[in-house]
């Protein structure tokens, strides 16, 4: 279902602010909650591996987890944009 441009923009901003919120607002509640849990868990693991401490043995792993969480977040925003604009069901 195609939505007005203002509504699409709000959904995209909501999705960018909180992982899964755009899907939740689109009515895909279980998917939104699952995405929130997945992105947050990935980011928390990344932060727990001390990505800022260059002398830590796990520094590179932490940065990789954070990068993956960021990429997932970007893909979720794009997915919400496509679904809200009617490009994808």
Can you put this structure into words, describing what you see?
With 89 residues, the protein is an all-alpha fold. The protein has one domain (5-83). The chain has 4 helices and no strands. The model has no long low-confidence stretch (mean pLDDT 94).
Write the layout of secondary structure elements.
Elements: H1 5-17, H2 21-25, H3 29-48, H4 59-85
Helix pairs in contact: 1-4, 3-4
Distance between the termini: 8 Å
DSSP strand tally = 0
Quickly count the helices.
Answer: 4
Low-confidence stretches: none
For the sheet with most strands, the description reads:
none
Mean pLDDT value: 94
Overall form:
elongated
- What Rg is obtained from the alpha carbons, in whole angstroms? 15 Å
Element string (H = helix, E = strand): HHHH
**Helix share bin:** over 70%
Domain module tally: 1
The secondary-structure class comes to mainly alpha
Q: Indicate the proportion of strand residues.
A: under 5%
Q: What attributes does this structure have?
A:
4 helices, mainly alpha, 89 residues
Give a concise summary.
With 89 residues, the protein is mainly alpha-helical. Helices cover 73% and strands 0% of the residues.
């Amino acid at each position: 279902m195609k939505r007005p441009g203002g509504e699409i923009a709000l959904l995209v901003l909501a999705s960018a602010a909180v992982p899964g919120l755009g899907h939740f607002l689109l009515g895909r509640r279980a998917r939104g909650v699952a995405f929130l849990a997945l992105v947050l868990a990935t980011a928390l693991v990344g932060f727990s591996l001390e990505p800022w401490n260059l002398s830590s043995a796990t520094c590179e792993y932490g940065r990789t987890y954070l990068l993956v969480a960021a990429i997932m977040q970007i893909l979720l925003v794009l997915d919400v944009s496509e679904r809200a604009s009617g490009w994808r069901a």
